[in-house]
Amino acid sequence: MNNISIISQQERINPRNKLASKQKGFTLIEIVVAMAIIGILSLVLYPNILNSLETRNLENSTRQIMTTIQRAKFQAVKSRINHRVRFDYINQGEMNLWCYIMEREDNPGSWNSMPGFNRRFLPASFNVTVNFPTQIVQFSPLGFVSNYSSTQNSITVQSAKLNDYGQYDQRVINVFIGGSVQYIKSQSGE
Known about the structure:
The protein contains four helices and nine strands. The protein is of the alpha+beta class. The chain has a single domain (29-186), classed as minor pseudopilin epsh fold (3-Layer(bab) Sandwich).
């Protein structure tokens, strides 16, 4: 019993020793090691992060085109008016860009842009090949492609960055006479 009381008396006499041994924090060496680990991980993962962003941008851009084509078909059937998606290669400042817009034929031969649908631009970093007759996909009120050509029925969006990494760098949208749309991921040269 005396031993227990001696220890408790010493703790009461010198409380600083107890606090000093229980202080929490990091040493400079621990902080430097943690920063070095974070730096190495950043260097290793940075190209993967950029690659993921490029892949996501390519996917989003191509899927927006596909959605617009499908929406034009739906609107043609719903309203019983010819609709089309028109692609243009325009000069925007110092850059040449591909853009597309959905239009409807209000009067024979008179095409107007769809209300609420703004012209959309494709990023300049992508190589775009529009292979449609007169760069237009036109839908009849029955949902058929009225300007269909078996040799001109696709749009290809390609990323040079993904090609450099040896990954699937192309997205191809094929449009068939019945109005169906096919989406393909591929690699250049396949």
